[in-house]
């Protein structure tokens, strides 16, 4: 039975509406898709205010961010499988309702312990909701309609980062009714309730025609493996890398191997595992995920380091740092909308083309970091950021198209789950690895005491740290371009 999935192509889907996904239904799904990344980004700019209000330690502040991200990444594949089995609209509604409720609890949290618990639950709710977006698109659209829908999904991801950083800074600056950081969560409540009402009427009901039994062993092993990787990466620096954290990190590869072996055994027995290994034998899935890892490692690391460099090296506040990255986010949004035509015309060549454009933008940023690091740097970086954002949009959407075009419709939830899990894990890995590189180079640079730049020695360190991260990301672009040449044509 190892080739059962490979032999299965898109099958009949149960839909609430014969016309499939309408523009109103897609818009409703994209609202849900935006809420999860917005809430991840918005907390970063609010941490100092939360610290002053709730008197949290550094490690506790890290947990407010990491608790959300870890539970989110842990449950994405499971959320996709549950949607396949019980209905994608049902899981979308469940996740959206839970996200709205946990946002209310976050906004009303009386202490930091309640806030951390609510953030973990909020991440889990997001993991139930998000896979249903791509899975519903996969199950209800084809051809150019699917291409446009995935393009809008990518555009939503790009603009969500901007909304999270800039919108969060605006809400904090407004200090509505002297409530400090709480509106960044409470604003989700009316948005979530509105989306719930719309979803009931506009989102088509789809599910797999072959719902599978629960894969408890695979679920546990995947959770252990992802947690063993992400907990050390997100909490290691804050806790000073204690021995137990290093031991947990060492568990990750063993859990990954055990997960693969268990999933292969389940599939060979004729049952459906949590993540069918035969998915990875599909050329588009395997090649697309391989390209996705360095792509999103670089993207996650860049977004994290850029915000740090703007604040530590140039003295910008949270709102200023958010505005400084806005040229990239706006460019990403615009070119995500244009990408379907480019991908339709150039196919798999769109990925090497996209990362080449992205690499050009990154290359133009390096001399600004090394020789133009002053209060004018945000202005000098506008054009490179626009170029990089355009290339990132084309590259990201090509990866999404390649992976999803090979996934059978009755396994759309599992396919979108593995894609989003790979994306989120790579983003966390990039933040940890490139963030550590930045901290190391910036620390040594700040000790030189040359005094040039916007912030003296600290400004020099931030500039050198950012240049080092940009150099690594430029090398990653070369690797991704080479991998892109081997991908199958997206459909």
Word description of this protein:
- The chain is mainly α and 491 residues long.
- It has a single domain, classed as Growth Hormone, Chain: A.
- It is built from 17 helices and no strands.
- Helix 2 (23-54) runs antiparallel to helix 3 and helix 4 (88-108) packs antiparallel against helix 5.
- Residues 1-19 and 447-453 have low confidence and may be disordered.
Topology:
Blueprint lengths: L3 H4 L15 H32 L3 H29 L1 H21 L3 H29 L2 H32 L8 H4 L1 H15 L13 H24 L3 H26 L14 H32 L3 H29 L3 H22 L5 H4 L1 H24 L6 H35 L9 H29 L7
Helix pairs in contact: 2-3, 2-5, 2-6, 2-8, 3-4, 3-5, 3-9, 3-16, 4-5, 4-8, 5-6, 5-16, 6-12, 6-15, 9-10, 9-16, 11-12, 11-15, 11-16, 11-17, 12-15, 13-15, 13-17, 16-17
InterPro entries: MFS (IPR011701), MFS_dom (IPR020846), MFS_trans_sf (IPR036259)
Protein name: MFS transporter
GO molecular function: transmembrane transporter activity
* Alpha-beta classification: mainly alpha
Looking at the structure, what is the overall shape?
globular
DSSP E strands, number = 0
Mean pLDDT, rounded to whole units? 83
The total domain count is 1
Q: Bin the helical content.
A: over 70%
Low-pLDDT residue spans: 1-19, 447-453
Largest sheet features: none
In CATH's first tier, which class applies? Mainly Alpha
Query: What is the CATH-assigned architecture?
Result: Up-down Bundle
Share of β-strand residues: under 5%
User: Any idea what the radius of gyration is?
Assistant: 22 Å
Output the helix-strand order: HHHHHHHHHHHHHHHHH
Distance between the termini: 26 Å
User: What is the H level of CATH, i.e. the homologous superfamily?
Assistant: MFS general substrate transporter like domains
CATH topology: Growth Hormone, Chain: A
Helix segment count? 17
